[in-house]
Write the structure tokens for this entry.
Amino acid sequence: MNILLTNDDGITHPGLAAMYRQLAELGQVQVVAPETVQSAASHGITLKAPLLTSRVTVENTFTGVAVDGSPADCVKLAVSHILEQSPDLVISGINSGANVGINVIYSGTVAAAIEAAFLGLPSIAVSLYIKKEVPIDYTRTAKVARETIELILSAGLGAGQAVNINLPALLPGESPRGIQIVRQCIRPWADTYERRQDPRGNDYFWNTSAYKLATADTDTDVAALRDGYITITPLQFDLTNYSLLRHWSNRQWRLGGQ
């Protein structure tokens, strides 16, 4: 199996190398990832500047292609030009921080997986919930991620289908409570901004929001991850509101002069 590996934390991020080592047990892995951190880049792509690339060796583990662009840019460029053949699977992550609830919309990690699905490829985004009191162990996280990926592949992941995995923060010796297949939580959360002034007295604002796994319905990714489960959420990129589409289709739509 040929696997394309990318992320939004940058090609030198330790979570990427850990994921590479685990995925190498499943097939041939090629890395095309952002040169710099692209967190919260969402699905932005580069149109008004060239995409510079360079070959980078990371942790004596892999040599990949660093792209001076977004996660979506990386997938587009990898599939269209860099890789000799189209991958059988695209993996994005491990991301430092959960991508559940509304964060799915903002996430560059998820955007890379969605871009792969746009291109007709099966794809999986992988993220790790971070807690201040819990030490980060990317080696262990990558192993759990790979085992979860294998379960998804055995269940069946087709062309153009994307899946979002989130892994709980675990203390040493602690295990996930299990795996839950859950929907994305769509409850909004409030952004907070601190008003400041520059030396000339002009106001500027600094986003001080800190995302927390707050109250959520029990069948959602937020609730399950908060309760210590690995969450799996199938995603789609068709944003059509079919209920409203059907409702409006029954109306007569005419301009005033018709």
The helical segments are 14-23, 71-82, 103-106, 108-118, 138-155, 221-226, 242-249. Residues 127 and 232 are 11 Å apart (CA to CA). Residues 138-155 form the longest helix (18 residues). Residues 2-185+214-249 form a domain with the Stationary-phase Survival Protein Sure Homolog; Chain: A, fold (CATH 3.40.1210.10).
